[in-house]
Amino acid sequence: MTISSTTVQSRTDGDGSETTFDLPQSVQAEGDIEVYLFNESTEAATLQTLNTHYTVDLNADQITFTSAPSATEKVFINVTLDIKQLSDLSNTNSLGGRAIEDQLDRIVQMLLWLDFQVQYCVRVTPNANAGLTVSPITDAASDRQSKKVAFTSDGNDIELVS
User: Fold this and answer.
1) pLDDT of 127 strictly over 60
2) Is residue 94 included in any domain, yes or no?
3) With a threshold of 0.90, does the pTM exceed it?
4) How far apart are CA 64 and CA 56, in angstroms?
5) What's the total number of domains in the chain?
6) 56-93, pLDDT tens digit by residue?
7) CA 89 to chain CA mean position, Å
8) How far apart are CA 95 and CA 89, in angstroms?
9) Which residues, other chains included, contact 156 with Cβ-Cβ below 8 Å and sequence gap of 6+?
């Protein structure tokens, strides 16, 4: 498999009749994707379940829904990979090119997924003299509403403020 696309998410409008949608890139396993339906009228995203709401054709790089998403729904297909090595490449003379190719493809896919995730992060320029610590913001969505991310008064941490 060759990784020819850097896209790790696709967004497509439902139309009430189309059930087949292309994956943003080839994947090695059905579990390497998450599929969501986003209802535009309620603004709710619902995670779909493999083999209940859709199936995956790895050879065609497509998913097929059991029923077509409506015209008020958007289909989001995300490539999501666990960051772990799934194969043990033994140190022998019989190491096949296919095994190496599969591992290199998986590494590239993980890097693309991480790059996509970083786009949605708050970035702080590293500075050895700043002494900055960044605490995770774990408040509930209702507690975060209409708040801003700001530095604390001593400049050493980040907090939510009204």
Assistant:
1) no
2) yes
3) no
4) 7
5) 2
6) 999 999 999 999 999 999 999 988 876 666 666 666 55
7) 27
8) 7
9) 130, 131, 132, 133
Q: Is the Cβ–Cβ distance between 25 and 5 less than 8 Å? A: yes
* Domain coverage including residue 149: 127-162
Q: Tell whether 82 and 161 lie within a shared domain.
A: no
Secondary structure string (H, E, C) spanning the chain: CCCCCCCCEEEEECCCCCCEEECCCCCCCHHHEEEEEEECCCCEEEECCECCCEEEECCCCEEEECCCCCCCEEEEEEECCCCCCCCCCCCCCCCCHHHHHHHHHHHHHHHHHHHHHHCCCCCCCCCCCCCCCCCCCCCCHHHHCCCEEEECCCCCCEEEEC
How sure is the predictor about 141, in pLDDT bands with cuts at 50, 70 and 90?
confident
CA 15/CA 88 separation, integer angstroms: 44
Give the domain CATH number at 51: 2.60.40
Q: Is 81 exposed, middle or buried (0-12, 13-18, 19+ CB in 10 A)?
A: buried
Q: Are residues 82 and 160 in the same domain?
A: no
In a domain, 24, yes or no: yes
